[in-house]
## 1
Amino acid sequence: MTDQAKVPGPQGPGAPAPALVIAGLGKRYGGVQAVDGISLELAPGERMGVIGPNGAGKTTLFKMIAGDVRPTAGTVEILGRDVTRMGAARRARLGVGRTFQVSNLFRDMSVLDNVRVAARGGTAKARVFWRTQGMTDDVTRRALEQLEAVGLTARQDDTVADLSHGEQRQLEIAMALVGEPAILLLDEPAAGLSAVERTTLRGLIEDLPRTLPILLIEHDMTLALGLTDRVMCMENGRHVVTGTPDEVRENEKVKEIYLGRRDKK
Ligand code: ATP
């Protein structure tokens, strides 16, 4: 178990760059230090979870990695490139795929069209022009492949507004994957889902390609520990511990944080 989340395994010349390196990352909102000096490395193909109670700073950390929020301290490197000053769109072009805590779906469009828009770089602008620009066979083929991968083939012609919450999460993952990301960031994917929907989502994430590095921010400790190779626990913006799921599960501070509080999950 480590104090900060360094990548185990080969390093040095010739070793592939870590998928993600954050160093001393911090964010202050006025008097609130939302994230305080977090460092973390995600190895190629590694799946890592970030857990912590309400207000731990998980979402702020995620937003700094995705490029939604500018840090007040520290750096973010993705695939060996310093992206600290880049916005979310540029990071996406570098291969960052992500899901959103608040749904980013086009609710009045069909399931298939949502994935087709995402395949073409699904920005608001793309949405405006999508009808006038012909969808190529390749875009449709890739979109259908991803819908099959997340188990939504039967819903492809339905409107997003008619999907369950769980199906909307599945769709968001299809939209993140269709851009063939080099790293996938999942922002509390299980939030608001029923037990059955969580089980479906868990199976879907488990079945993602093992070569794809994944950072999973998740309040639900059971889900995060069941899906990842390593887990970092945060509290009050600070690093608590990083280790294997078993090490984190058995950690006294983590037990106190999750079991000794009213907001446990
Ligand atoms: P939750 O599980 O409840 O989503 P979290 O671990 O994601 O919590 P954050 O949402 O990152 O935690 O919040 C960390 C702290 O930063 C909290 O005290 C929160 O009130 C504060 N905070 C987050 N965003 C802002 C903001 N835009 N302005 C001011 N304070 C903020």
## 2
Amino acid sequence: MEKTRNFCIIAHIDHGKSTLADRMLEVTNTIDKRKMKNQILDQMDLERERGITIKLQPATMKWRDFSLNLIDTPGHVDFSYEVSRSLAAVEGAILLVDATQGIEAQTLANLYLAMEQNLKIIPVINKIDLPAANVEKVSTEIVNLLGCEEKEIILTSAKTGEGIEDVLDAVVEKVPAPKKENEDLRALIFDSTYDEFRGVVIYVRLFGGQIKKGDKIKFVATEEITEVLDVGILKPDWHSTDGLNDGEIGYLVTGVKHLEKAQVGDTIVQVKSDTPALPGYKEIKPMVYAGIFPKEGSDYQRLRDGILKLKLSDSSLVYEPASSHALGFGFRCGFLGLLHLEIFQERLNREFNLELVVTTPTVAYKIYLQNKKVIDLTTPNEMPDPSNIDYAEEPYMKIEIVTPKEHIGGLMSYVSDNYGISKNTEYIDEDRVILHYDIPLSTILVDFYDNIKSISSGYASLNYDFLDYRKCDLVKMDILVAEHPVEALTTLVYRDQAHKIGKKIVQKLKEVLPKQQFVVKLQAAVGGKIIAGERISALRKDVTAKLYGGDVTRKRKLLEKQKKGKKKMAKGAKVDIPQEAYLAVLKR
Ligand code: GDP
Ligand code: MG
């Protein structure tokens, strides 16, 4: 145990966590040089293409005569549950700050999470190779924030490899060894994944005892008893070992058949043990809900399988079966944010080859009914009749925007236009500030972050956290295409914004829907009343093309006949709405 060190790397997105991990794996000869590639711990195709880390990823390395267990974490706020689970499995955290950017919103958020866990923090300034690096300024920011001494800060370039050995040495010297807390086996499940060949693979941190192949074990929460079929460490591929000891991090393959039996946050103990469960994780609350339906009804079973498997490696996902008249059988899913939803949808599409209809995402409203009942409303179509509603409440978030001070004015007016309530402003140093606001979640859901970025020329960063529920004046808005309500496009909006939003949606639909043989009416309606409308003109097939000469009457007759036909078509028509249209409407 005294030769083991467990730590994770935390930072704002893009400050170089995954690249720093690459260099560590190289310097410690954990990965064969020939197999090395950039951001190797980003193992999903999607992560590599987008250049973002979505999942936590552990790796075990040898340094001097120590065994170091590193966990790389995502930086985007939608995946902060991955960060908090990683933090519970380690004793120290490398706080990485980009020398050209300084402290940003997620730097602070992740640092506070690490401090709550009493982790040893090792401050590191990365990207010192860049001409725009301002080590002195960023050092001051870190000293102000942590109250550490400037000489404790390690300078690195994860690109050139400079300073990497210093970081590894600091981990050995400063991160405490795991403490002995329990004689018998006690292992925290901090992650799991699904492998086609091995089934459920569980990632554990031992807080007591040992575990070997062939051991009989028990999951405390589900009381499931099973056998350890394989055990080992992550380098980052699975490498079988004789077993895992107290304080170590590794993986287990067990005989668990049902995916639900191995829950992230649960504790594994010996079968006959009465060792109590570790604290685990607090239940995570989804922020955003959307209905996910297969485009083809016959794909329902495959969708179900896909969601179950993704849930295994995405413990923040929440889902329940749903059905709708128009969309058939599917699922109501809860996400931590829109990026989470987008990634999930893309994974179902790629990894399971599913074509989906995703309904307009919504936050969870609380509806207080006249009869004193309260309902959680996550499906716009289930909005009760207005005459039964006493009042509605919506979730509010606490947000922090970190920005250079020249953008304060622009950001403040944008945030208050979006119903933000200013709390206070803090200075990080003389030219960077943190703006604190309370704001409705529904107004930051869609393009808030993009707008913050563009207003600040890319310099501002954002973090958010659930705050409380507050009253709001809500109405259900239906969108009709060719006079048919499109269930997936129904949304809940503020009453005084319905007109404005309705107009934007129909305009957007007009841009993205393909023309039909007939005129297509696009309408937004609240309580049966049309509040905005557009129309898409018909594709004009030239029925007179075959006529030579100037037989005007015949030409007119033909055109009239065509007009009649179109009217007929438009009445009974259903317009096929492509998936891109749903997305386009969302990003209004
Ligand atoms: P993460 O989001 O914190 O994991 O960041 P990544 O490791 O994915 O790196 C983000 C970007 O910064 C990538 O394009 C890296 O190549 C680049 N990068 C990371 N570290 C350095 C560094 O020390 N110097 C330079 N010049 N670029 C770096
Ligand atoms: Mg990364």
